[in-house]
Amino acid sequence: MDSGKASRRFFEEHVSGRTGASRGDVRLGPTYGADFGVVDVGDRVVAMATDPVFVLRDLGIERAAWYAFHICVSDAALSGLPPAHLAVDFNLPPGTDTETFDAIWAVFDREAEKLGASLTTGHTGTYEGCSFPTVGGATALSVGDPADLVMPTGARPGDRVVVTKGPAIESAGMLGVLFGDDLPIGAAAAEAARERFEDISPVRDALTAAAAGKVTAMHDATERGLANAFHELAAASGVSLAVERERVPVLPGVREVCDYFDIDPWTTSSEGTVVATVAPESVDAVLAALDDEDIPAAEVGAVEERGGERVTVDGAPLAEPESDPLWGAYETGRERFWGE
Length: 340
Description:
CATH superfamily of the largest domain: PurM-like C-terminal domain
Number of helices: 10
Helix content: 25-40%
Shape: globular
CATH topology of the largest domain: Phosphoribosyl-aminoimidazole Synthetase, Chain A, domain 2
Radius of gyration: 19 Å
């Protein structure tokens, strides 16, 4: 397997159809392009999603822990239901000091309390073969009324496509924080890139949009970026997307960082960016609600019947990314600026 998230082909060849027992309470099981699964529990639904606990200590332990926490809860929040419970497994390398764990856990506790979520269960230990930054996994649960659930498979022809924040938010923010003092892109652009780190969480975007109107599907632009998010959302719902490039917002600092590292903003990680499909009559209300929360967003295209191309941009096919340039840029920065 290549590094990073498994591809659509891998999912179809090795996961699809091999998901254990068939149960009547499973509303949505493993689906390529879907960020979470859903089960029925009485008159409620539970959306659940599992992600790595990813603590990149180069960011500074508190900032790294904030980043890790929001990665863990973001997919469940894309259900439109607030995260309610989090189960966390820490598999730490031997020799990890108690102060490091305490610092991470204090941030998890603080951020969970802000969301009204319980750190309900988990596991903590040190084990040979484990190493930072990937030091475990976590499963987030969002619980709510079925009427409030936004299914990741619900995009319909005629819906409009809304994008929050635009491409490369995570990449610009992370690289800006790590290397901003050294990047030769000008002080203003470097500071703007550092500010993008604060935009990495998609939780407010997703919950705000879902509460404001008829949102039919949501997906976040994590690994392989905005281009991949368009493809995954379209695949999950069995539709096509027609997008106009100039309508997609691009926040300050993004172009400069991506140009410096020679990476395509549309194919690099952008945790914090949400792609949503919205019923036409709800677009204005959703955009207004996002604006009220100071979340940049724009209507960028439309959902169409599944055609020959899954995603087009300005009428031309959009290639499905096969890799993510963020971590190559990270290693380049470490070598160039830190001599590592």
